[in-house]
Write a structure and sequence with these properties.
The structure is a homodimer of 283-residue chains. Chain A is built from 11 helices and 9 strands. Chain A is of the alpha/beta class. At the A-B interface, α7, α8, α9, α10 and α11 of A face α7, α8, α9, α10 and α11 of B.
């Protein structure tokens, strides 16, 4: 159990960390700081929040584990702000969707007096905000932890244990490799769903009323928050571009097969996709 | 109520037509023909099947309404085969995903003694086969009917009423327009999901074990039957190619915005997709 857990900027993920930690007794005292005063006032009324701090510095002062749950572009600025207030040996992690720069600079900012270990639970939703937080959000979900060679083994173990206690399945991967993986399995599907919807928006919008479950499922994540995704794509631009170019070649090859009426090639591509999809673990 | 309903080649859709018609008392007697003798033997044991015929001709001889539920490339051959055996005034429809050629040639094959009215219920699934049929499959789902100017109004009314009795929401559109619509809202998402999976299959397949709900939902329909989709794409090749080219331009524009770090454009495209997706009717 983490004696004192601090969560900065709880949205869907940070709120779910707090609720899961309370329900699963993974933390003793839970301290929260949110940027807006009205959010702080609302959080003070939640059973999973023991203390609301007025500043990030005050929030982390007694913390054993700090989870920075802000959008990715605020993680490093917040880390720099709280660094002088951290106790010796405190561990800081985050929930950001891109890890290369954050893992490297996070380690540099804290040095060895306190420890930064990057995390990324694969448990987003098109819904946002702590109001939608759920104590079961991390159950059987992959939680990436992304240590560097220089990462303190004790800090890595603490973060790994924490996600396991919240129900997650921990995968430890190098930060650059993490960014390549999520560019393919998370950021690429997002760009695709958003692009499909943006394209269909230029057609007759009434067509969506005819749609079956296929279009509905394929586009669900297009309902996600644009500003949140801008910050993720900013951080992982290079890997997402590489993934998009690879997928573009695949789609182009499908189109060429259709143009040439090469039905064997069309069938083979659908069959290859089916084989891959059928191999998904049952949820 | 249809006194005698005949269903040829029941798979997921045809089986669901039979089960829904029985449960909702939309048909009196239900006669079925399937191509394989072992399927006919199994169907004879189902409560929603009153008679199994040995040939398509025998199956339709006493029918008031015939539903051809075969893959799209078998619909016209079957229609030609049964045409001489139909009673005067009998109505024939189908459940094929492409309608242009089928509606036109179907009308030509039957002339005016019996009547062909093309249908397409938007109620597929990645699951196939009559074993997965469900009496609720058409509830609140769009069922396209695609009359020609020359279509008999009584036959059109009979087919429209039938889908309504099965729980569907009927949309009557011109066959060519139907093909344009489904190319965008059904066939394009299928090509996209299949291409994404075929692309990811060429990466480390273990990555799929890390995936959250986003990739799972986005790719669900990639599990669909490749042969079935080949026949659909054969029939609707031109419209699907046009839709693919339109979407390709949209994805390329997204890629260009990422390349140029034009974050305003990236955010605007995601926001436009979100606005469209948020307008989906609640299921």
């Amino acid at each position: 159990m983490v004696p004192t857990l601090t969560i900065l900027c709880p949205g869907l993920l940070g709120g779910s960390v707090a609720r899961a930690a309370r329900e699963r007794k993974a933390a003793g005292r839970i301290v929260i700081w949110a940027r807006r005063p009205e959010t702080r006032a609302a959080l003070a009324r939640q059973s999973w929040c023991d203390t609301v701090a007025e500043t990030p510095e005050a929030a982390v002062a007694g913390a054993d584990l700090v989870v920075i749950a802000s959008p990715v572009d605020s993680i490093l600025p917040l880390l720099r702000q709280i660094a002088p207030s951290l106790r010796s040996g405190a561990v800081v992690t985050d929930v950001g969707s891109a890890k290369g720069r954050i893992a490297r600079e996070g380690h540099e900012v804290l040095g060895t007096r306190a420890h930064f270990v990057g995390s990324h639970p694969m448990a987003g939703s098109e819904k946002t905000g702590w109001e939608n937080a759920s104590p079961g959000l991390f159950e059987r979900r992959t939680c990436f932890v992304t240590p560097l060679p220089a990462t303190d083994p004790g800090a890595l173990a603490a973060v790994t244990d924490f996600w396991r206690q919240l129900g997650g399945t921990v995968a430890s991967v190098e930060p650059g490799r993490h960014d390549e993986i999520v560019a393919h399995i998370s950021h690429l599907p997002q760009v695709l769903a958003s692009s499909l919807c943006a394209f269909l928006a230029g057609k007759d919008p009434a067509w969506r009323n005819y749609a079956g479950g296929g279009l509905r499922d394929t586009t669900r994540i297009a309902g996600s928050d644009p500003e949140l995704w801008r910050t993720i794509l900013e951080q992982n631009r290079d890997e997402v571009l590489r993934a998009l170019q690879g997928l573009g070649a695949e789609i182009k090859a499908f189109e060429t097969a259709l143009e040439r009426r090469d039905w064997a090639a069309v069938t083979a591509r659908i069959a290859e996709g089916k084989k891959y999809r059928d191999g998904f673990p049952t949820p």
